[in-house]
Request: fold
Amino acid sequence: MSELRYDLLHDEYILIAPERLHRPLSLQRAAEPPEPALCPFCPGHEDLTPPEIYALRDSKGWHTRVVPNRYKAVQIETPFEAHREGVNERWGGFGAHEIVINTPRHDATLATMSEEEIFDWLYTVRERVADLSRDQRLVQIDCFKNHGLAAGASQPHPHSQILALPVMSKAQKAQFRHAHRYWREHGRSLYEDIIEQESRERTRTLIEGERFFSYCPYASSFAFESVILSRNCANITELNEEALRELAATVGQLFVRLHRELGPFAYNLLFILPPVNRNFENEEFFDELPRLHRFYLRITPRIYTLAGYELMSQSAINPVAPELAAGRLRSDDEPSR
Ligand SMILES: [Zn+2]
Reply:
């Protein structure tokens, strides 16, 4: 039984989730990734996953599936009740933890998936975020994709995870409070100002689309870190079909370029989403979110290992200047997909 504990020392919430200990670490155990014959996410093995929550299907079969995480950190059936013991506070592990199977193709990567396949995956994520947002008890929805052992992935089949919790993380609170302060002081969203600055300098830009702007951040924490930023939507749920198609094309193009420069590489891909329901942590800025936040994807290649300094300071040492990374990733001749 998992629980959410409040860390009084560092003012953050920690998930204690013993169930996670039992998950199979396929990538770690075997030098060779497991065969599709043994993969629980491959077509034909639907009975190896818990019952489906959502799927995109046509007459030939499914394109994406969403299932509860078998080794979930939290569950929606747990009552959301606080227990206080002196200065300590904990909640039963209430929340949602879902797996999105991005494609039926076991060996696909974001560099080899078609725009249509990437669109189906992003569409599925949008639908799940919209559905979970309707549960007023859930506040923060984290969606992420881990790829490769160095990024924490335990299954090689392309998948992503959605973790929805009744509280915000310390990092998210800090990010939104900062964006709120900036908006109050300048009367503009900091994202608008970043796009304006980057468009002027053009040393870190990657792909400049009508609805999305991608670039390597000025102070990137990771080598080849890349961001795909919506020009005017605060949440993935606001993207219409056209915007989702542009996003799918941008993701595909960027991953082809990353693969060209880095070869096969481990990475985390994070969907930076605003809190979806008001609570005591976000009431000061919740109503302003459409003005002060922009939805973005953050791609952090895990080429170098994080060590003591990074853990202690929560800040990074990045050996590759973002201007150099962007120069390598910006391409005059478009790589073929
Ligand atoms: Zn598979």
